[in-house]
Write a structure and sequence with these properties.
Helix content: 40-55%
Distance between the termini: 17 Å
Order of helices and strands: EHEHEHEHHEEEEHHHEH
CATH superfamily: LmbE-like
Number of domains: 1
Strand content: 15-25%
Number of strands: 9
Amino acid sequence: MDILAAFAHPDDETRFLGGTLAMLAVKGIRVHILIATRGEGGEVGEPPLCSQEVLGKMREGEMVCAADALGASSLFFLDYVDPVVAEDGELFPFLADFDTLVSQLENQAQKRRAITIITHGSNGEYGHPAHKLMHQAVMAAARKHGDIDVYTVSAIYEGHPKPRLANNDDLADFVLSIEPWYSTKLKATECHRTQHALFVRRASQDAGRPMSLAEVTSKEESLHHAWSRERSNLTDLLATF
């Protein structure tokens, strides 16, 4: 069985789905990771680990590290460019012709014989426009193809550990304890070195003290079953999680 994990930026796959992807790989599922951009517009680290000009190349290497840690069978970039975050913190989608993006997603799923795609939620987690764009494109590809099953990450449920990152319009069909695969998720998180300051910043502010990467790496993940023509093999597998 093959699944495609399709996300906008390097680190999205680990933050929202790392434990689940590690579990699937251990159980013999071939996990293929597709990333739309190289995260060129993101943070460069504190202190800076590189210049903005070479951030994309560095984050590509971080993504290779994370994919290897998670046990992914393949990693592919769509080569879109991630816009730089505005000075006021405003986020932007990457520039893409929507129909072309949909076709690329459909083609990549077919190439890897993946009948299941896991992607961003409908609210873009914390409202990120690029996350929303990927969600919309994956859903369009699923409707166009007909046989593609879609699950989305960070679905809302009572007690969600990070409600600020929850997709409030996507009710959780599965709430997964990834405790057995937590160390693998943390290892993949450690790969994304340029983003470590970003990962801990909000939690540290809320706690009034510096928080470690381990403290902010969630041991629960949730999925919403967003699209399916019939009951999928992944649904049956997740039900035993």
